[in-house]
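Running co-folding for fe (ii) ion.
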Amino acid sequence: MTHEHHPGPRSSRVPRLPRLSRRRLLGTIGAAGAAIGATGGAVGTAVTRDTPVALSTVGSTAVPFHGKHQPGITVAPQACGHLIAFDLAPGADRKAAAALLRRWTGTAERLAAGRTTTDDTGIALDAGPSSLTVTFGFGRTFFDRTGLEKQRPASLDPLPDFSSDALDADRSNGDLWVRIGADDALVAFHALRALQKDAADTARVRWQMNGFNRSSGATAEPMTTRNLMGQVDGTRNPRPEDEDFDERIFVPDGGGAKDPAWMAGGSYAVVRRIRMLLDDWDGLSVGDQEQVIGRRKSDGSPLTGGSETTLPDLEARDADGRPVIAANAHARVAAPETNGGAAMLRRPFSFHDGYDEKGAPDAGLLFICWQADPLRGFVPVQRKLDRGDALSAFIRHEASGLYAVPGGCAPGEYVGQRLLEG
Ligand SMILES: C=CC1=C(C)c2cc3[nH]c(cc4nc(cc5[nH]c(cc1n2)c(C)c5CCC(=O)O)C(CCC(=O)O)=C4C)c(C)c3C=C
Ligand SMILES: [Fe+2]
């Protein structure tokens, strides 16, 4: 497989040589090495220095833009993310939309390679590509607005209502969706600003959300990231080396039984802004938090023992005959084993948008999951979670989107060309 998958966070990104003199580089490695050596890991040790430390290849790493799939789907969690949805402006037709996708593609491929755009804002001038990815998707309403109803995939039928939804329509859906990810905040914002400027009179911002993950290199070893509840989150994601990974996550060549041919190599993204009720969550003991999820907080291992990667034993009972992993534990209710095999690739960002009127953090998860078919991924799992997930008392789904994300493009093509010119 050639996509940007990983077991470890950096494995398939392409490091480019940093522009550092050999002397400076050696000095840098020396300082960082001394800090690590003294503490046994990359722990927050003060390093005396009077110039910024170029720690690694974080800035100079580039994710290839061209390929069978768009970048930003299987990419390892990036430190900074922006999600933005646009609606086509009144009067903007299919031709205008095609011109916009062509502009966006040009911008995305330049920035992903660490180059500037015409009329560049200069925001990211001193940085490399920092693993920037830009991923484009089409919402259900795009097809009506452009006269392409016949090309609309059945998989874009609206998601069912879930009893626990408290959705804000203004922050949901949209004709077009863009996911930006990078390991540097200025690089990510630079891309956001450039794409928004490209939209010009063709499309208007409908909603926009900002997210983050742990920075690369912040932990001694690459490890599964944590969410704002403190849990190790992402352990049981499908892995690219799984035999059925492509089949679960990507629309097959030719488009598959229920997909139009233009979706070959594409995927469907479900996006949910999920607020975490952190004051309530933090009021629980660690033991109770672990019961809610079914895994240990410290290392993500299942309550039935082993390490993070040990399979949970869903049959195990304690001395009193009660299930060790509770019937309503999130990891049990969401597991493929209890959902007829339904699975999705979860690639969320955390968010924090300040505090509400009661002083509670407006924080949580920008949940993004990828699948070849939402009816065999997100929908059955969320239906089940909606009925009996212990985590439900501590979260609120506040916004929702479903997007058809076409396959990647070759040099000279633009994303979505097969739809817009088919
Ligand atoms: C409908 C899909 C899911 C939503 C929505 C969801 C929200 C959500 N999840 C966590 C934290 C964890 N989830 C974990 C596992 C897990 N979650 C889902 C699906 C949804 N989660 C799946 C399919 C799985 C894997 C289950 C399995 O195969 O065993 C875990 C455990 C570690 C892991 O496997 O990632 C945590 C922790 C939060 C906080 C949240 C909403 C805010
Ligand atoms: Fe989950």
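Result summary
The radius of gyration is 22 Å.
Residues 14-18+57-420 form one domain.
Job closed.
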